[in-house]
Amino acid sequence: MPPLTAREVYQQLRDAALEVRLLKRLDEQPEPGQVQIDIEGWRLTLDFDGTRLRHCQRCQSPDGREGVLDSWQRYGTDPVSLLSTWELAQIERLCTALTQ
Question: Is residue 62 pLDDT above 70, yes or no?
Fold first, then answer.
């Protein structure tokens, strides 16, 4: 199975920002500063610096394919860097709102 591309993962984040897809925060916290979310079966590990989303550490799609930061950076980008300023703010807001 081919790995997930940054673009495929970006699309899930974008849809969540637009509230086309439901974003749920999971209770698991792999490491400090990391947040696990679920976007309709897509499981993402996001890396935060306080309330600022820095990048997507990893993602697993419902069909079992995976993508990781190291492979995306090899091509010069990660899914978070593809988000517009507004989309990024929305994802940060949604993740923050889910902790309160």
Answer: yes
